[in-house]
TrEMBL record:
SUPFAM superfamilies for this protein: GHMP Kinase, C-terminal domain (SSF55060), Ribosomal protein S5 domain 2-like (SSF54211)
Binding site for substrate: 31-34, 221
Domain GHMP kinase C-terminal residue range list: 276-356
Residues annotated as binding ATP: 65, 119-125
Assigned keywords, A-Z: ATP-binding, Carbohydrate metabolism, Cytoplasm, Galactose metabolism, Kinase, Magnesium, Metal-binding, Nucleotide-binding, Transferase
Domain GHMP kinase N-terminal: 91-175
Record: active site: 169
Pathway it works in: Carbohydrate metabolism; galactose metabolism
PROSITE patterns recorded: GALACTOKINASE (PS00106), GHMP_KINASES_ATP (PS00627)
Molecular functions (GO terms): galactokinase activity
Taxonomic lineage: Bacteria, Bacillati, Actinomycetota, Actinomycetes, Streptosporangiales
Pfam families named among the record's database cross-references: GalKase_gal_bdg (PF10509), GHMP_kinases_C (PF08544), GHMP_kinases_N (PF00288)
Gene name of the encoded protein: galK
Descriptive protein name: Galactokinase
UniProt subcellular location: Cytoplasm
Amino acid sequence: MSDVSSAFRAAFGHGPEGVWTAPGRINLIGEHTDYNDGFVLPLALPLALTAAASRRPDGAVRFRSGQTAGEFRASLAELVPGAVEGWAAYPAGALWVLGREGYPVGGLDLLVDSTVPTGAGLSSSAALTCAVVMAAAALHGADLPPDRVIRLAQRVENDFVGMPCGILDQSASMLSTEGHALFMDTRTMDTEQVPFAPGEHGLSLLVVDTRAPHRLVEGHYADRHRACKDASRALGLAALRDVADLPGALAALPDDLSRRRVRHVVTENARVLEAVSLLRSGDVRAVGPLLTASHASLRDDYEVTVPEVDTAVDAALAAGALGARITGGGFGGCVIALVAADGARRCEEAVREAYRERGFAEPGVFEAVPSAGARRVV
């Protein structure tokens, strides 16, 4: 963390009072279920955002990022929804939400640096928001438990940035542990650390950054969210998680679009529960087909894939992957593939070759290693 502390000192002329880190995440399975009170199974990545911060006595805020040139400057009073654009909206929103929730906040110098790719669907925004909520609260005397950080970080996205997300990303960033996936019931917030160490089973979980920009605030995500809420109301249910009779529910819906959205959510919840059962028993290989079934559902029923994503999935499967799917909210972002460790290079090369043939930008490929969640490091 010395590099971040040194960069902070160079930027602001004094050292930070503390340093916090929060990881990016992938979702093994359970996509678009969180805002339907359903089940999710994410894990934290070794890629993380680090935030160095210190208080200011004058009520001003200064934000800098290792990934973006320049400095954002404002007063606390100017941090209101709609007034801040770009990456700075997330730390600005963290201070706004803390203030609205009655926590003491004041001026802040903040420098962030991240190894989580932006726009890849690896939850760089949740990592940023969680880290800043933790930092700003702690510096002003509030020791927030993880579940409180999660809810406050979600409010930043919902109420300040304008992204109607659930709590999957923030929960994965805050609660994950090394060598496990995080099984969570998003209605009750009950969690279970489910053993997931592919390397111990001769497997590897590859992540393909498709380089197709992952943009969710532009309406697509909100459209899916709204369709699910409308369908729940039409069925007289609190949330789609409560659908007990899928054929009956589908027959009761007025149009094909609603039926396809509901079918994805209900079958995806079932896939999460089956994946958790398999991991509890140590049968990691059997999770592969569930990933592929999830992708087909997200492609055909939820319609959140793009050509780069489908190309990566098809190429990985053709090269012998046990399963592959889009991960994250969709409309770009990343693909995960569960592969035999000795076949990982073959799958990677197959995806790269398929991209060259289609004229797509070169993808990024790395191995996902289940890692620890957010924490204060200095």
